[in-house]
Design goal:
The protein has 95 residues and is mainly alpha-helical. It contains six helices and no strands.
Length: 95
């Protein structure tokens, strides 16, 4: 999808110039939900450069790696997400 690549490039440009914490995950998650895993990974990688201690970024990188068949990288990203404070939520905690 060419539009997704253009949007990804715009996102990366914006993030380099106007990084806002609440904004770091919006586009990567949108790409992930649309199945644009390459663009999602690019945007997550850029968000990670801006803040490499954001546990949600690491957790989503882990999911992208899983969906693209990269088990070892997924495990490494998951472990780092846990190390920097990612908290798993159980269904009981939601209810």
């Amino acid at each position: 999808m060419k539009k997704a690549k253009v949007i990804c490039k715009i996102f990366i440009m914006l993030m380099r110039n106007y990084a806002v914490d609440g904004f770091l995950l919006r586009f990567p998650l949108l790409f992930f939900q649309l199945g644009e895993l390459s663009e999602s990974e690019d945007a997550l990688s850029e968000a990670n450069i801006l803040n490499n201690t954001d546990s949600e970024v690491w957790a989503y990188l882990s999911l992208v790696c899983l969906k693209t068949g990269r088990q070892l990288e997924a495990e490494q990203a998951y472990k780092y997400a846990m190390k920097v404070g990612f908290k798993l939520i159980t269904t009981q905690q939601i209810l």
